[in-house]
Amino acid sequence: MASVYVTLATIGMVFISPVIVPALFFWGVFYDLFSSELPLGIDQPLKLRFYHSVMITTMVLGKILQKLGICSDLSLMRIVLDGIPPQRDSTLLIKDLKVDEVPLRIYQPKWPPTGKRRGILYFHGGAGTFGSIRACERICCYMAKKCNSVVVSVGYRLAPEHPYPGQYFDCLNATLYFMRNLEEYHVDPALIILSGDSCGANFATVICQILLNKRDLPKVRAQVLLYPGLQGLDFHLPSYQQNASVPLLFRKLVVYFCFRYLNKEPSVLEDVLQNRHVPESMKQKYKKWVSADIIPDKFKMRDYVPQKPTSYKPEVHEAIKEILAITFSPLLAEDAIIRQLPESYILTCEFDVLRDDGLLYKKRLEDNGVQVTWYHSESGFHGILSFFGYGIFSFLTGKKIMDSMVNFINSL
Known about the structure:
Distance between the termini: 42 Å
Shape: globular
Order of helices and strands: HHHHEEEHEHEHEHHHHHHEHEH
Oligomer: single chain
């Protein structure tokens, strides 16, 4: 079915491209110029503007193709955001297989191991609705080589075709398969690492918490969380305000993608942005873990103004209550769970609406005695690693982030 969508989308784009696509791109450029904000210090702003314009063009063109009955808007987004597949790396053994209908791609160095290797599971980002094994191939190849590791990239099935919370089960089943077959891949059971970016980091966090109850399996050695999204409780945190219009992830897009992921109509989107979906009792219960008051003052210096409290609307809560579940918001897990978690690496980017999710989780882990290695990219933005490995089309900061992550993994 995916190949049919690709064919239809290609035909549709060829049919309308002579006039529509260039016009949409120029419109996307103007939209970016007038609606987005690129603060001083962000990495390579002109390049980011170009990519953001392409993203806007893709989203609008997708809506047009959907109206024409050619393909869904998500299908086009998936094609474009998957990027260009890299050439197969001659130094790596790469194997594709399926576990319970979930595609996996396993990367390992061809050179003989001197001992048992690390095993790294990687869950890609994409708001649970796009992204793929192909999209993160350059990241996984880099980790396999630089960390002398076996890397398992998990192609969990996407929403809304595969409904939430199926993505968590896909990631869990892939993890269980790998943990039960470590000998086949010559992996040290004491060196299992769960990792991911954006929503993939959310999945890694949740799977780490679930595995605490699996006493028959090896313990996870570390979790590697790259600009994670970890809570749907508070969309008024400083980073949400400061980076509300910073590409590639606007504040409003976060909630919009939540609705797409959960296959909900976004009729109450504005109310959710104002936190009207959270009962007062829940706000009081979790304010010790999720609050602007907990964010260090140095992160509030850039144009932050505390928000006034908003009133609760029960009908809004009912419409989107899934985002308050521990599965969706693992930052809300109890201390009894948090204190058992493995050593962690957390990446935050200054110009990312999700920055404060990472900062809050870092504090929770440290308060519960979990060792955390924190890397804060002063010039980074959400999704910067999507461009890693594309040469001159990449961002300089992305390489620094990857090398920091590799250094952490190699230190284990």
